[in-house]
Amino acid sequence: MSEKKPDIAKWVDEAALAIGLPIAPQYRANVILNVERSLAIAAPLLALDLDDDLNPAPVYRP
User: Fold this and answer.
1) Span 41-52, pLDDT tens digits
2) pTM of the full predicted structure?
């Protein structure tokens, strides 16, 4: 099974259009780069399997 790389440029363009956020042409490439970096940073966390029975602690005390 091969996974296709998502079309980040299309994601950026469609998301900007959906929320009415214009992206100036000179910044578009950097916005795409930042989304790609964000996906790379989040990938290990998203790959982590969590038990469905886990519950968050009701109160955090350091």
Assistant:
1) 999 998 988 888
2) 0.69
Low-confidence stretches of the chain (pLDDT beneath 70)? 1-3
Residue with tokens 């989304």: 35
Contact (Cβ atoms closer than 8 angstroms) between residue 23 and residue 31 = yes
Residue 60 lies in a domain: no
Assigned domain for 57 exists: no
Distances (CA, A) of 9 to 2, 22, 29, 31, 55: 21, 14, 8, 9, 36
Radius of gyration of the chain (CA): 17
Number of domains in the chain: 1
Confirm if 11 and 39 have CB atoms less than 8 A apart.
Answer: no
